[in-house]
């Protein structure tokens, strides 16, 4: 019998972030697929990969928050690296999007290429092709994805701020303190 290597895909992070936005509420694969503009089979395969990687619990319904935070802190920029590309019209991401655009002032803008966007900036390829559609009605997901992009493309200061914001949101911490406490 031939065994296959289980390899995480960028959409797995996208789906884990969406599940994290649900704050431990019950969810169904069909509804997640619809909200993320993906097929139900893509969701099912992703859930299996994330369970195998230890990023979802055995039921495949709850994000293993500390493991996921650790992956975002130490792995995301190596496993799914991104470098700013050409100037395009799109939707702001990384330090150009909320919440970081209120904290970090920068002349350079980063965007996900999209005809729906109205900002010009350097292109950042999103984790999955449907990201620009999925974030239209989900501000929490938009902010988490933008924060993850800040970790993928940012400098040390941007990464630290982004990781602290991600931790606060995923762990459902409601304080808005700006201390530089590093995660984990």
TrEMBL record:
Residues in coiled coil = 156-183
Q: Which UniProt keywords apply?
A: Coiled coil
Q: Which domain of life is it from?
A: Bacteria
Task: Report what the protein is called.
Answer: Uncharacterized protein
Q: What is the lineage of its organism?
A: Bacteria, Pseudomonadati, Bacteroidota, Flavobacteriia, Flavobacteriales
């Amino acid at each position: 019998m031939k065994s296959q290597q289980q390899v995480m895909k960028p959409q797995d992070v996208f789906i884990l972030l969406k599940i994290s936005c649900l704050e431990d509420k019950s969810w169904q694969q069909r509804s997640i697929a619809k909200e993320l503009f993906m097929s139900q089979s893509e969701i099912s395969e992703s859930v299996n990969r994330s369970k195998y990687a230890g990023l979802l619990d055995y039921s495949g319904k709850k994000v293993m928050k500390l493991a996921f935070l650790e992956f975002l802190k130490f792995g995301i920029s190596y496993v799914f690296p991104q470098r700013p590309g050409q100037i395009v019209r799109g939707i702001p991401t990384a330090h150009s999007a909320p919440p970081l655009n209120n904290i970090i002032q920068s002349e350079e803008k980063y965007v996900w290429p999209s005809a729906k966007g109205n900002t010009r900036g350097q292109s950042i390829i999103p984790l999955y092709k449907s990201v620009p559609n999925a974030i239209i009605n989900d501000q929490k997901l938009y902010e988490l994805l933008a924060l993850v992009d800040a970790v993928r493309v940012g400098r040390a200061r941007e990464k630290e701020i982004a990781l602290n914001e991600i931790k606060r949101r995923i762990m459902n911490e409601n304080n808005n303190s700006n201390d530089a406490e590093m995660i984990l």
